[in-house]
Amino acid sequence: MPPLLTTPRLSLRRLTEADAPFALELLTEPAWIRHIGDRGVRTVADARHYLHTGPLASYAAYGFGLYRVGLRSNGAPVGVCGILRRDGLDHPDLGYAFLERHHGRGYATEAARATLEHARRDLGLTSVLAVTTEANVGSQRVLEKIGMRRTGTVLLAGDETPSLLYST
Q: Which end of the chain has fewer CB atoms at under 10 Å, N or C?
């Protein structure tokens, strides 16, 4: 599948069912579970189901969703980044997560910046939000680096504590 976006180091494309092993690894990492939530994914079959009911369904409904982020040098997957529609938010939001072994390399900032530009340029979105937990300081730094500002808090459906809300 051809890339939707490229940056100097990264290539972003739509996720496919073939990405289920990567999705399984990402969704079971402690950082994903701590900051995003346990999606109940424990097997490759669970990951396929997650892909079909999450990113693939989002592409069909909205024309956007989470994208697979891979290294341009060798194609290895390092994370996901994209635009989401969530209940409880007035506008689409930017979301991302990276395998822990790739944290601290600037990939999240690079992918998030490119995705935000794509949302404005290609999707025509004039307002994009983002949410993160108060404990996820790394994510807060990424959002600030790409020019988003904290505008308050929001309690999303199914969450027990409010998330920090950012906007463009």
A: N
